[in-house]
Amino acid sequence: MMETITLGGGCFWCTEAVFVDVKGITNVESGYSNGHVVRPTYEQVCTGDTGHNEVVKLVFDPAQISLREILEIFFVIHDPTTLNRQGNDSGTQYRSGIYYATPEQAAVAQAVIEEMRGSGVYGSAVVTEVTPLANYSVAEDYHQDFFARNPHQGYCMAVAAPKVAKFRKTFARLSKP
After folding, report:
1. Does 46 qualify as catalytic in the annotation?
2. DSSP reduced 3-state for 175
3. In 12, 65, 116, 129, which residue has its Cα 20 to 30 A from 48's Cα atom?
4. CA distance 33 to 27
5. With contact defined as beta carbons under 8 Å apart, do 44 and 37 qualify?
6. Per residue in 125-162, pLDDT tens?
């Protein structure tokens, strides 16, 4: 039985680029969630006025990868301590968020965050929001598989590629062959 979890960790091009490479994840879709405009455009989301976050919706097989493992990857590839910012990208559309489909997923997410807070792994407070998925819509076609189709684009080379490399080094056992 497949599960779905939706994550916001900055620009969806970068987050998608990592998760398409993870064993047990069968589909990765870039989209917008948890805002107040129905089916916003990229241009609308970029204004910061829609309340939406750039997210990736992941379909995964829990027999191959656990939600905990997915969240461990998520917290390594982005900074969960910066409010509405990832690197040079700023605005509410770049906030750190876990948008769950079930109460069980919410419990796992909260447990992982509490463990991180207790471990002192971050020097600052974790500001990742954990809330039910709401008002999700798929991003425009040109955002799907953006890194795979544009690996030499400047942003991809400077931001996405290092995240993919970090994932592959840190989680080699979870990387697709």
Report:
1. no
2. strand
3. 116
4. 17
5. yes
6. 999 999 999 999 999 999 999 999 999 999 999 999 99
Query: Structure tokens of 16?
Result: 């998608």
Asked whether the CA dihedral 26, 29, 125, 37 is positive or negative, the reply is negative
Active-site residue among 11, 14, 46, 156? Answer: 11
Tallying the residues shown for the chain, one arrives at: 177
Degrees, nearest 5: CA angle 148-152-157: 90
CA-closest candidate to residue 117, choices 107, 129, 127: 127
Write out the H or E segment, with its range, that includes residue 5. Answer: strand 3-9
- Cα separation, 35 vs 28, whole angstroms: 20
Q: pLDDT tens for residues 86-126?
A: 999 999 999 999 999 999 999 999 999 999 988 888 989 99
How far apart CA 169 and CA 164 sit, in angstroms, is 9
Distances (CA, A) of 110 to 72, 74, 119, 159: 12, 14, 14, 28
Q: How many helices (H) and strands (E) does the chain have?
A: 7, 8
Q: Is the dihedral of CA 41, 45, 49, 51 positive or negative?
A: positive
Q: How far apart are CA 148 and CA 141, in angstroms?
A: 13
**Would you state the structure tokens that stand for residue 97, as one six-digit string?**
């968020």
**Beta-sheet strands, E only, within 12-124:** 25-33, 53-60, 85-86, 89-90, 96-100
